[in-house]
Design a protein that fits this description.
With 470 residues, the protein is of the alpha+beta class. The protein contains 17 helices and 19 strands.
């Protein structure tokens, strides 16, 4: 047994797991490239140990021991990431937040709720709904993700257009820093007290500290919830419809526009061939919902949108998180993934066309498509999906990288942002300089060195490990 494991066991007892099954289950997240490499027998290595602390004091003790031993620590929440944010090596210690679970407090008067970071996202929402309230954060991974993971990856939920994203819902955080100190931010609706320290950890992907608690600002459950659907001549027309809806002040909870290929695949009975399909969900007081439905219908009609069956939205709500696993495709020699990016309005359509054209040039491509799923006053996201089957199975990984490269090349050239809500992980880390620039990279490295001078927390994620201390 290694010296660091002995010290961890002295300090945390049976919280330290070294059995093969536990170590194997914590090697990686859902990144398709890690799954492909597992199938090929060359996936991520088992970590040295998995530690399951059950208090902030035990998290602090774990980090202190590992820092003294110069041992890498990778925080594991729900393991639902898809960008390689978790990928262990043989000498790593995995810090699982599974033991940090549950509701700490809920306050109906102030509309707040505090959860421990390992709480499952869906369990948190269901707990709050039992009080007649909602967090309103519905990422596709909600049934798998942890509260801390949602914060650490700066996630977006499917109801984001009305309710905002995770950064709009967090009031305060408790975080254990790499040296074991505990930071607790102030619980206020807003502060003008220097830079907002919460934002050091929103999107930090476990590289700057371990989130142990998060407090949300809540909403009452909506009085009314009604769907609405339209189809347009093409994606450009649908994007213009969304832009006008948001510009005029309407805020549907859900705004999703599918290109012709995805519309035909997902809504064959409701969308004519070759057209783009838009679904919306309106929530709130009945008077507000009725006004939004009327206002949105008017604006969509003005640019040639045709109203479709609103029951389609109910079907989408019931099926939206039911997606097949990657292994079904990988075993057939098909490599696939999704890539979400963001853009201001004028760049959306050109980026879409350039990215699809780039994907269609990749050898073995089977399908290239996209939809938008998060809309804002000043722009929207695009969510690309690709499937490819190279002639040789040995070429699957190279084909994967070629698809990613073709999309991100189009995004960068077109003036967009390389990541909207899945984070950076390892799949995008080499392109982060194109998002934040050389000065931004230097600034991130400076912050990393200040908090974690030995690069012990999740090296290789967000910033490449080879340059994090440069």
């Amino acid at each position: 047994m290694s010296q660091v494991v002995e010290r961890l066991r002295e300090g945390l007892g049976d919280r330290v797991k070294v059995d093969e099954a536990t170590r194997d289950a914590h090697r990686r997240d859902w990144w398709v490239l890690s799954e492909l490499q597992d199938l090929q027998g060359r996936g991520p290595e088992r970590p040295l140990a998995v530690v399951e602390p059950q208090s902030v004091e035990e998290v602090s003790r774990t980090l202190t021991i590992c820092r003294e031993a110069r041992t890498h620590v990778v925080t594991y929440g729900g393991g639902s990431g898809v960008c390689g944010g978790i990928r262990s090596e043989a000498g790593d210690v995995i810090l699982s937040t599974a033991g940090l679970s549950g509701l700490v407090d809920v306050d109906d008067h102030n509309l707040t709720a505090t959860f421990r970071a390992g709480t499952n996202g869906l369990a948190a929402e269901e707990e709050i709904q039992s009080h007649g309230l909602t967090i309103g954060h519905w990422p596709q991974s909600i049934g798998l993700a942890s509260v801390g993971g949602l914060v650490a990856t700066r996630s977006a939920g499917q109801f984001s257009t009305a309710y905002g994203n995770i950064e709009d819902m967090i009031l305060d955080l408790e975080v254990v820093l790499p040296d074991g100190q505990v930071l607790r931010t102030r619980r206020t609706p807003r502060a003008s007290a220097g830079p907002d320290l919460r934002h050091l950890f929103l999107g930090s992907e476990g590289t700057l500290g371990v989130i142990t608690e998060a407090t949300f600002s809540l909403r009452p459950l909506p009085e009314a919830s009604r769907g609405q659907a339209f189809h347009f001549t093409d994606l450009d027309a649908g994007v213009e419809g969304i832009r006008r809806i948001l510009r005029d002040g309407f805020r549907p909870a859900v705004v999703r526009l599918y290109d012709a290929k995805e519309s035909g695949r997902n809504f064959p009975d409701d969308c004519p061939d070759g057209r783009s399909f838009l679904i919306l969900l309106h929530e709130g007081p009945e008077e507000l919902v009725a006004a939004q439905i009327a206002g949105v219908a008017k604006r969509c009609a003005e640019i040639g949108g045709t109203e479709a069956n609103a029951a389609t939205v109910d079907h989408w709500l019931g099926e939206r998180n039911n997606v097949p696993g990657f292994d079904v495709f990988l075993e057939k020699g098909i490599i696939l993934d999704t890539i979400e990016i963001a853009s201001t309005w004028e760049h959306v359509a050109p980026i879409y066309r350039a990215a699809i054209a780039g994907l269609e040039k990749v050898d073995g491509i089977l399908s290239a498509s996209a939809h938008t799923s998060h809309a804002y006053r000043s722009g929207t996201n695009l969510y690309f999906t690709f499937l490819a089957r190279p002639a040789e199975r040995e070429a699957m990984e190279a084909t994967y990288h070629a698809c990613w490269r073709s999309v991100l090349d189009a995004v960068v050239a077109g003036g967009g942002g390389i990541a909207h809500h899945h984070g950076i992980g390892r799949v995008r880390s080499g392109r982060l300089v194109e998002e934040v620039g050389p000065v931004g990279i230097d600034l991130l490295r400076t912050v990393k060195r200040a908090l974690d001078p030995d690069d012990l927390l999740n090296p290789g994620a967000l910033l490449p490990a080879s340059t994090a201390g440069a």
